[in-house]
Specification:
lipopolysaccharide transport protein A fold, 27-stranded mixed beta barrel, twelve-stranded antiparallel β-sheet, about 5% helix
Length: about 800
């Protein structure tokens, strides 16, 4: 919600400018691989935002000062005017009171009224901020006064203010004459852009009202208004946000005007009516509410009336879609609702609703809103789930899942409405606490799912799955785990017709099957101390961003493993096929392989603690387990994700290199005629992460006989000290996917940079998306001007865009575009 604080402020300052421009005809810690980003061509620095957060935190944690009592007056040269009960000093006067300090070259201070006359180099410092001036009169008790050539900050120093004459009327109120405002804070003291006015009234945490106002850009007035009002507060404010406008040869003139409304401290809504004169008219509504720390809601609904397009596709390709039609009234939206009870209640519970719906199969392609759904998604999936923990060993859930097909026939898609699940598990130690970690972990899962669809067989599936795990290890030589699982599955169908061939299924069937698995693994590791000046430490410290830590120690670990799974044959061809669980195939599979990692222990270049052997990470910095992993006490083997880094109290431990191989052998295929190749493709993973600025990861599945790669992928990123960067990813799946995407950012000089994003489909030999932009930035990043071009397929669209951002007013940019058919 915080971005809306800045949104309303930006509109208030620039709203009238935008309306004027409308009339201008020519304006329109873990080390991982960074993924390409289609939306952001330039890496934005967050230093100013972080500074603002720190200042706000400091202010919130600062207690209110007590009322001024004793005042101390100090100066190299002092005299006391007894008749006026006034102290007079020069040569550098300092007047101090609790929470307040006043400095000036010369000053007079009345002990009765607490009034002071200040001369030259005036500086007033308090918990509210700093005021500097050339001359001033200031009441130390009331903290009010008048100043000449005053300079100070408001809105937590978000605005810098200068006024030839300034009156501080109260703690929060100011009256200014001949003044200017700016959120731009350059090191040399200049302000590339500013709001200048002859008169202004400011109330902190409320509004600024300026009169006879010019907006200057590098000293050149670019806009005038007799009156301008804008908020000067951290709180969210209702108001108009920056409009979007543009023109398309296909869709006509475009305008979208958001209205942000704060309903209360925890609730806001944004109304965004829009129009494309040749295609559509409609509105977008965003509603957000934070009920508590563990309870929040976020939603969006878009309605569009498209009677003006007369059913035309307007460049949208419909290849492979079962139903490419759409009504005049179209809609799409999402609803996200998360709630979690307190942990100390009798039955801890949580609720999640993640709903995504569209009115037709073309909506996602024509409305670019990834919160609702990605452009080329095959489904929009909505899930509602309530889960509860009834005891330390029993938990249950009820959920519903609705899948809306984008490419296939909705009538054939199964919906899970609802799913009931009950799980009980407990760890027993019949042999006591023994040096082998031997224990018994029984578990029972009960699931009931009602599969519903409009056309074809559907109905209930009940499954009871008791299992038992027996983990075991011998010293530190190996660890292992034996697991036995039985499945009792009952089908109770409401409809029995198979839509693929018209045959009829039995409305009541059962299946009994079991599975046995055993896995064993070991690990060999060695720690290497590194001498000063070694080449690996030098390599990992390349680049300006890698100078704060130094590699001191290496740990090489090799983890070989073997896993065996056995499932007997059970004829299941006559069972309904709801999902893959209904076809548990016969197998006797050995999976074997190894993983090896080289991890580095980094410590600060300067500071104590480099000789400490190891430090324990903070609890909140230990990587969280995935939700589908079992707890260690229940026999699970916890693992950290690839390329992980654990932050330590003094430095960090980070993976530098990883490599893994894995293959499976199915004895069942080897013993049956025409069973196929019993050996799977060899899966290989290689990762190289020497610094924060460079990472490379390769993954592949290769036929062990021919060497043919059935699938492979490569991803990586690189960044140099200038700020040039590249992020890329290639994905290949045989007869399915061959796609390359990436970002490139080049620093042309201190003021200019270029950004590019592309996604290329090699199978179709065409670019799915192209975006290019040039950015001109001010010397101190106070403003940015972008001009660019993007090209997108399905719907085919070319767009030229312009964007201007005033730094300090939030990352809200204004774009205008020209589209044409390809």
């Amino acid at each position: 919600m915080h971005s809306y604080i800045y949104s309303s402020r930006l509109l208030a300052v620039l709203g009238l400018i935008v309306l004027k421009l409308l009339t201008w005809p020519n304006l329109v810690l873990g080390q991982t691989v960074e993924s390409p980003d289609a939306k952001h061509l330039f890496e934005q620095q967050a230093e100013n935002v972080e500074k603002a957060k720190k200042k706000l935190k400091k202010e919130l944690l600062t207690a209110d000062a007590p009322a001024n009592q004793d005042v101390d007056f100090q100066a190299p040269e002092m005299e006391f005017l007894q008749d006026k009960n006034t102290l007079k000093g020069k040569g550098g006067v300092v007047i101090s009171a609790p929470g307040l300090q006043v400095q000036a070259e010369a000053a007079e201070f009345n002990l009765d009224s607490k009034e002071s006359n200040l001369h030259e180099k005036v500086l007033i410092t308090s918990s509210d901020g700093v005021i500097s001036a050339t001359e001033g009169e200031f009441n130390v008790d009331k903290e009010t006064g008048t100043f000449e050539n005053a300079e100070f900050g408001i809105d937590n120093d978000g605005y810098k203010v200068f006024a030839e004459d300034a009156e501080k009327k109260s703690e929060f109120e100011y009256h200014l004459e001949d003044c200017f405002f700016s959120t731009c804070h350059c090191d040399d003291g200049t302000s590339p852009w500013s709001i200048n006015s002859s008169t202004a009234n400011i109330t902190e945490e409320e509004y600024a009202h300026t009169y006879n106002t010019f907006v200057d850009f590098h000293g050149v007035p670019i806009f005038y208004t007799p009156y301008l009002g804008f908020p000067v507060k951290q709180e969210r404010q209702s108001g108009l946000l920056v409009p979007e406008f543009g023109y398309s040869s296909r869709d006509g003139a475009y305008l979208k005007q958001p209205l942000f409304v704060v309903l209360d401290d925890h609730t806001d809504v944004t109304f965004s009516p829009f129009i494309e004169t040749e295609t559509r008219v409609g509105s977008q509504v965003d509603f957000r509410k934070a009920f508590s720390k563990y309870h929040n809601l976020d939603s969006r609904f878009i309605y569009s009336n498209e009677a003006k397009r007369n059913g035309e596709l307007r460049g949208t390709r419909v290849d492979g879609l079962v139903d490419p039609t759409f009504d005049e009234d179209r809609y799409g939206g999402y609803y996200k609702h998360v709630w979690r009870s307190d942990s100390d209640v009798m039955i801890p519970s949580s609720f999640i609703a993640d709903i995504h719906l569209v009115s037709d199969d073309l909506f996602l392609r024509e409305f670019d809103d990834e919160e609702i759904g990605k452009r080329f998604s095959r489904y929009t999936t909505s899930i509602v789930a309530l889960s509860s923990q009834f005891s330390d060993y029993v938990f249950g859930s009820v959920s519903g899942e609705f899948n809306q097909a984008i490419e296939t026939d909705d009538d054939l898609v199964f919906q899970r409405l609802p799913t009931f699940s009950l799980v009980g598990a407990r760890s027993f130690r019949p042999f006591g606490f023994n040096p082998y970690g031997l224990k018994v972990v029984p578990k029972v899962e009960l699931e009931a799912v009602d599969f519903v669809r409009k056309d074809g067989f559907d109905g209930w599936r009940y499954n009871l799955a008791p299992s038992v795990k027996i983990p075991f290890h011998y010293k530190n030589y190996f660890n292992s785990e034996l697991e036995l699982t039985a499945y009792k599955t009952i089908y109770d169908l409401d409809e029995v017709r198979n839509p693929s061939d018209g045959s009829l299924l039995d409305d009541s069937q059962e299946r009994d099957i079991y599975s046995i698995s055993y896995k064993v693994g070991t690990g060999v590791e060695r720690v290497y101390e590194l001498e000063e000046g070694n080449w690996l430490t030098a390599l990992t410290s390349l680049g300006s961003r890698n100078q704060d830590l130094r590699l001191r120690r290496l740990k090489h670990k090799i983890d070989p493993f073997v896993r065996y799974t056995y499932t007997p044959f059970e004829d299941q061809n006559d069972l309904p096929l709801f999902d893959s669980f209904d076809r548990i195939r016969e197998r006797s599979v050995f999976t074997y392989g190894f993983n090896t990692k080289l991890a580095g222990r980094f410590t600060p270049l300067h500071g104590a603690g480099e000789d400490i052997t190891e430090l324990t990470p903070r609890v909140d910095e230990i990587p969280s387990l995935f939700s589908d992993q079992a707890l260690s006490d229940l026999g699970g083997l916890d693992e950290l994700p690839h390329g992980s880094a654990v932050s330590m109290k003094n430095g960090e431990v980070r993976d530098l290199i990883e490599f893994g191989l894995k293959q499976s052998y199915d004895y069942t295929k080897d013993t049956k005629p025409n069973g196929g190749d019993p050996f799977s493709d060899i899966n290989a993973v290689f990762g190289l992460y020497p610094t924060r600025d460079f990472a490379l990861k390769l993954e592949s599945n290769m036929n062990y006989q021919t060497g043919y790669l059935s699938s492979w992928g490569a991803s990586g990123h690189f960044r140099d000290d200038r700020g040039d960067s590249i992020r890329t990813r290639y994905s290949y799946i045989d007869n399915s996917v061959s796609q390359l995407e990436g970002n490139l950012e080049l620093i042309l000089n201190e003021r200019f940079r270029a950004g590019y994003y592309a996604r290329f489909d090699d199978r179709e030999s065409e670019f799915v998306e192209n975006r290019f932009a040039l950015r001109l930035a001010s010397a101190c990043d106070c403003w940015f001007f972008d001009i660019g071009f993007d090209e997108r397929s399905n719907p085919n669209k070319n767009r030229v865009f312009f964007s201007f951002t005033f730094g300090g007013l939030g990352d809200i940019t204004q774009k205008t575009s020209y589209d044409e058919e390809r």
